[in-house]
Amino acid sequence: MANQSKAAANWLSWVVIGGSALSKVPQIVKIARSGSVHGLSPSMFFLETFWQTVTVLYHKSQQFPFVSYGENLSFLIANLVVLFQFVQFGPRSFTSWSRILLPVYSAAVAAVLANPRGFAQILTILQTVAIPGYQISRF
After folding, report:
1. How far is CA 24 from the centre of its chain?
2. What pLDDT is recorded for position 1?
3. Would the pTM of this model clear 0.90, i.e. be above it?
4. Which of 27, 35, 51, 117 would bridge with 134, disulfide CB 3.0–4.6 Å?
5. CA 106, CA 58: separation in Å to the nearest integer?
6. Tens digit of pLDDT for each residue in 69-79?
7. How many angstroms separate the Cα of 111 from the Cα of each of 41, 84, 116, 119, 125?
8. Cα–Cα distance between 39 and 122 in angstroms, integer?
9. Which helix (H) or strand (E) segment is 131 a member of?
10. Could you tell me the sign of the dihedral formed by the alpha carbons of 79, 85, 90, 93, in that order?
11. Is 55 helix (H, G, I), strand (E, B) or coil?
12. What's the rounded Cα separation, in Å, for the pair 109 and 118?
């Protein structure tokens, strides 16, 4: 019985990960078709991306199973796609600003992935405030 429960929980986790991967596809397609990000908040997407990155890197550094952070990873990837759509379709001021921020973000993620134990304390602190930070990004 315990093996069946574990298998069901694992299967359900993969369903949630798959569903979250598909949840932002309509928005991504709508932006691509219209060629516009008008009405969307770039700061919300930047902050969501930051907090999702913290969550994914924290779980990865702690060597938790993928199913414990896979949903965040799929949202993170979708938000990165939307951010690149902001670069492509957004105002020039956003494009200029993102040319600085996106490489810095990429370098920081690469540094943490290269040495996750070296950043463990920082990731733990950031993960502690991730939920309130994620909620603040919605304002």
Report:
1. 12
2. 61
3. no
4. 51
5. 16
6. 999 999 999 99
7. 28, 21, 8, 9, 17
8. 34
9. helix 130-136
10. positive
11. helix
12. 13
Q: Read off the tokens for 64.
A: 């938790």
**How many Å apart are CA 55 and CA 71, to the nearest integer?**
10
Angstrom distance (rounded) from CA 97 to CA 90: 11
Place of tokens 């996750």: 116
Q: At what angle do helices 42-61 and 120-128 cross, to 10 degrees?
A: 130
Q: In percent, how much of the chain has pLDDT > 90?
A: 35
Decide: residue 76, CB within 10 A, 0-12 exposed, 13-18 middle, 19+ buried: buried
Residues with Cβ < 8 Å from 58, sequence gap 6 or more? 123, 124, 126, 127, 130
- Distance between CA atoms of residues 90 and 46, nearest Å: 14
Q: What is the mean pLDDT of each run of 10 residues along the chain (139 residues)?
A: 73 80 90 93 88 92 90 92 89 75 87 88 90 81
